[in-house]
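job 3f2a | input accepted
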Amino acid sequence: MDKFQQSPRRRFRELDSLRGLAAITVVFHHFSRICPPQIVHALDRTPLRLLVAGHQAVILFFVLSGFVLTLPYKKDDRLNYTPFLLKRVCRIYLPYLGALAFAILCDLQFSGHGTADNYWTNWTWSGPVTARLVVQHILFLGNYDWSQFNTAFWSLVYEMRISLIFPFIALAVLRLRSRWIILYAVVLSLSFFPIAMFFSSALPLSNRTAFNTTLTLHYAAFFLIGSLLAKHLDGINRRYAQLSSLQLAAIALVSLALYAFADASSIIQRFSIPADLYDWGAAAGAAMLIIFAMNSRPFHSFLTTPAIHHLGQISYSLYLIHGTILFVLIHTLLGHVQMSRLLPIYLFGTLLVSEIFYRLVERPAMLLGRRLTTPQTAPPHTESSLIATPPA
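job 3f2a | predicted structure (392 res):
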């Protein structure tokens, strides 16, 4: 396995592509939820699990966001909070509003067509479209059903919450000892469950409301891990260059195993701890994938091929749109078209609509964010297109 060194000032195009591959696993993951049980079993119990590692992809998104959003602060440690927030709102929230409008229109048009008897499909487009629910989705307020319009929207709530405080996170990571940052990340992750139980018992909150709110602490820990990667990037790259090909191959296999199988049900059932804590295995594997993407010449070459890189460019649109396309097909074709034919229809429709959405909504919103922050001294490329939005 070759070692690939790069200029520390260059844009990490391969990480855009890595996010694109992660997004496509979310696409496959959600399709697998309507597949026959024997297919799901084969996907879950074999290395094919990498193809449907949807929740793991969300953890990768969070680690990537922590990494790429910290890089500008290594060059200029000024807070610059307002430009950061404007850019994140344009980058994440405005495309989300466009995807929300698209999902609501499709819900109104297709939800009455009936679905197969599948418990997962009953989480989306199963209730009436009300003004209250729409406003809650727009404002991210209240204990509402995040998956009612689009099954992937849930992760954007955490993305926006953490984005509100991320500049402070990045500066803390860069200025404090790394051992303390690791400790803080672990404490955040471990504390979400007991805090949720406390709030649900001490306040008039349901377990679900308390749990969904405090999960923000858990996911913030993975932004910290990504930020630490950025802080120690040069040292990590030097350490990578010292490893032998055999060592790198072993680390790569372990990383993939952690990423894909850390939350395997056979493992979780042996321990009476919250399943979300197994996200740490996925985070460890995700961090190593990021390191390999930047340093392994074969992996880097694959990720920077035009097709894969373009997938990375439209990956946020892909993430936002695919659930709506899937449920349109569920309500119109499922049960009438063979599953082997439904999959290519789903992929073609998702890629086509995502491309259109990227050109008409996401890219203009991103350019708007750049225009609004142009007077600032930071160059327009300091924030990569990498964002976290995950799902599963």
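job 3f2a | The chain has one domain: 13-372.
job 3f2a | closed
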